[in-house]
Structure formats: C-alpha cells, structure tokens
Write a structure and sequence with these properties.
The chain has 75 residues and is an alpha+beta fold. Helices cover 39% and strands 28% of the residues. The chain has a 3-stranded antiparallel beta sheet with strand order 1-2-3. Helix 2 runs antiparallel to helix 3.
Length: 75
C-alpha cells in the first residue's frame, strides 16, 4: 500500500476523489492496489486520509491485528 501511495499520479487521484467527497472512487482506487488482501476502510478529512486495515483473523472474532494509518495530504 505504501509503495502505491508513493506513486504521485495515484496519490493525486486519491486525494482529488477524497476532497470531492467521492467515496466510491476512493474505495475503487484503494481496492485496485495489487497485493492488498485485507479488509480496508478508508475515511478522509480535508487535511488527510485514514486507512483502517483489518486482518482476516479479526473477521473470525479475534480482537487483534488491526492497523490504522493516518496520512496528511501534501505535495
């Protein structure tokens, strides 16, 4: 995921979609990331984006294995 976010064109598209409030495009972009196989919820604010990634173990009732990344928009 971090490698893809390092792609300027991808990040710009993600930021523009988020700043326009286009959740479906944000979700489409995030789910298009090759190698991202965990459940991912994406939320955003005017100043940044928040990714909540959840391990498949959490879907089976385990209370573990979540990662939250908060990134600020910037150039």
């Amino acid at each position: 995921m971090l490698n893809k976010l390092d792609d300027t064109e991808f990040s710009r598209k993600l930021m523009q979609a988020a700043q326009q409030g286009n959740q479906s495009e944000v979700d489409r972009l995030v789910h298009s990331i090759n190698g991202l196989y965990v459940s991912t919820q994406t939320t955003y604010t005017p100043t940044g984006v928040i990714f909540d990634l959840e391990s498949p173990a959490a879907n089976q009732g385990a209370n573990c294995c979540n990662l939250t990344m908060t990134l600020k928009w910037g150039m």
